[in-house]
Write a structure and sequence with these properties.
CATH topology of the largest domain in chain A: Rna Polymerase Sigma Factor, Chain: A
CATH class of the largest domain in chain A: Mainly Alpha
CATH architecture of the largest domain in chain A: Orthogonal Bundle
Strand order of the largest sheet of chain B: 1-3-13-14-18-17-16-15
Keywords (chain B): Membrane, Transmembrane, Transmembrane helix
Oligomer: heterodimer
Strand content of chain A: under 5%
Distance between the termini of chain B: 27 Å
Number of strands of chain A: 0
Shape of chain B: globular
Helix content of chain B: 10-25%
Radius of gyration of chain B: 24 Å
Strand content of chain B: 25-35%
Number of strands of chain B: 19
Number of helices of chain A: 7
Largest sheet of chain B: 8 strands, antiparallel
Structural class of chain B: alpha+beta
Radius of gyration of chain A: 18 Å
Number of helices of chain B: 8
Number of domains of chain B: 3
Shape of chain A: globular
Order of helices and strands of chain B: HHHEEEHEEEEHEEHEEEEEEEEEHEH
Chain lengths: ~160, ~375
């Protein structure tokens, strides 16, 4: 059973890790969340192998893991800071990134990043993305169009001396 | 500006560097952990079923051979009482939330009229400048989704206890212990202690940064326990872990010498319960004054640390703490259904005076309407 999973993991992890990285906009969090998603699949193995679209499932679990960790981490930090009598003040700090495209990806809204990852890394069609995220196909199309425009601007800036 | 075509963007994204793959062994270890948690939930079902059969049988035959569950051993929780047919009933709210498939539930409120009156509070306009920004969120969909997903399960447990030691109205130490399920905070940056067969993991990163002791350990049932304290020696920590006993969903620390002189021992602190449904913040930039109001049921004592003072806020008990940035934070419950936290870089007496004016305001309060900044949903 574990051998089957090992093959499955080896085959899927490049696409899934890249998709999660694009979707969450943070490489470290993506590493952790991707590992957690695959571990959850292994805990339920072989059900994972029977999924229609395992990469979509893994991406959604990983994104949710990041969201939960971020929210819980924020609450825990707030509690620890309160205990240490150091209040949380407006502190959302983004990681500095050298690469313009990466910075532009990380700056996209979460939902846009997720759609970009599904479309351009997992190669899902717009209607498949719409079904996976529970939105209309028109929403997917317009969100992707805006995202392409923003990313193109970033690349142009990067290439302009 | 010409947007990318699809192939061009796919190629560009394929060049974005990514992190490393987790080794298979790590995934297997984590998967085993998840499976153990599920099996334990199953054990809960089996014990509940055994009790359901054994107790009526004993009563019917009257032979005195009554099934009596063994008292829990030190540090070992009683099994979470699971009935019904659902195969997975995680004991904690956090684990239940994790068990749900990806959900998106946080709603940023469009205006102050969406806040319940008990949360929509503000200081009097004579006490401080009007807020420059204000916002609020509604997380009720999360609670609803968790409730619906585990409708066949008993309510989740908030197995937590807070020990408060104080003298003359000044807190000297707090010790908080809670069952956290799979929600671990202590990572690789840690040192370890042994308490009998139990290995205690002590965080050396975020806990120390906050000037706190943050420790976690796993009991024989697979539950992770977390301790947070403003100060504690290694010997005290080991003694606590070895003497801690659970009775149902309560944690008994009476065997721990550190609890003997406690001013307060508060069970069910709310730390492991659902998060707040509504969170509302008003911030006056000019005065560096921030008011946050929530409707969660956490005890305000969770916000106390060494040096925190017990104060009176317009007839209601409050807790006043100095922060590292030179400001003060005041926590109190103006209403049984809401907890308020007022923070500002002002004299503590002035902060108390402002807090005394905090009260409910109508949804059309012009200061709130003008300052409201609804954010797009994430």
């Amino acid at each position: 059973m574990d051998e089957d999973f090992a093959d499955w993991y080896t085959a899927l992890r490049p696409r899934v890790l890249r998709a999660v990285t694009i979707a969450v906009g943070d490489r470290d969090l993506a590493e952790e969340a991707t590992a957690e998603a695959f571990a959850r699949a292994l805990a339920r193995w072989p059900a994972g192998a029977a999924l229609d679209s395992p990469v979509t499932w893994l991406l959604k679990v990983a994104v949710n893991e990041v969201r939960t960790r971020w929210r819980r981490g924020r609450l825990e930090r707030r509690h620890l800071q309160r205990l240490a009598a150091e209040p949380e003040r407006h502190t959302p700090a983004a990681e500095p990134r050298d690469d313009a495209l990466w910075a532009a990806v990380a700056a996209l809204p979460e939902r846009s990043r997720q759609m970009v990852a599904m479309r351009y890394v997992l190669d899902l069609a717009e209607h498949e993305i719409a079904a996976a995220l529970g939105v209309t196909r028109g929403t997917v199309a317009s969100t992707l169009s805006r995202a392409r425009q923003q990313l193109a601007t970033a690349i142009t800036r990067e290439e302009t001396p | 500006m010409t947007p990318f075509d699809d192939d061009e963007l796919a190629r560009a994204l394929a060049r974005v560097p990514v992190g490393a793959y987790a080794p298979l062994g790590r995934l297997q270890g984590r998967a085993r952990q998840l499976q153990v948690r599920r099996r334990l939930a199953g054990t809960g079902i089996a014990l509940a079923a055994a009790l359901a059969v054994a107790i009526p049988s004993a009563l019917a035959f009257g032979d005195g051979d009554v099934f009596t569950p063994a008292p829990p051993a030190g540090g070992t929780p009683g099994p979470f009482p699971t009935e019904g047919f659902q195969t997975e009933c995680p004991a904690t709210y956090g684990d239940r939330l994790d068990a749900i498939e990806p959900i998106e539930t946080l709603v940023h409120l469009a205006g102050p009229d969406a806040l319940p009156p008990s949360v929509r509070l503000l200081w009097d306009e004579s006490a401080a400048p009007a807020p420059s920004t204000a916002s609020g969120t509604d997380n009720s969909q999360e609670t609803d989704a968790v409730g619906a997903a585990f409708a066949m399960c008993p309510a989740s447990w908030d197995q937590s206890v807070l020990v408060v030691q104080s003298a003359d109205g000044v807190i000297e130490r707090t010790v908080h212990v809670a069952a956290v399920g799979d929600q671990r905070l202590v990572g690789d940056e840690r040192r370890e202690l042994e308490a009998g067969s139990t290995r205690i993991r002590i965080d050396t990163e975020i806990g120390e940064q906050a000037g706190l002791l943050l420790a976690e350990w796993d009991d024989a049932e697979g539950m992770t326990w977390r301790l947070t304290s403003s100060s504690m020696s290694d010997d005290e920590l080991v003694e606590l872990v070895q003497t801690m006993v659970t009775e149902g969903d309560e944690i008994d620390l009476s065997g721990w010498s550190g609890a003997q002189d406690a001013e307060q021992v508060i069970q069910h602190t709310g730390a492991g319960d659902r998060p707040a449904t509504y969170v509302y913040t008003a911030f006056a930039e000019q005065a560096q004054l921030q008011l946050t109001v929530t409707d969660d049921n956490r005890t305000r004592w969770l916000d106390a640390g060494a040096g925190t003072r017990e104060v009176d806020v317009a007839g209601v008990p409050g807790l006043l703490s100095e922060d590292a940035a030179g400001g003060w934070t005041l926590v109190w419950q103006p209403d049984p259904a809401s907890t308020a936290m007022l923070n500002g870089v002002v004299d503590p007496e002035e902060l108390l005076a402002i807090a005394a004016t905090v009260g409910r305001v109508p949804s059309n309060d012009q200061r709130l309407v003008d300052a409201w900044t609804p954010r797009a949903s994430q």
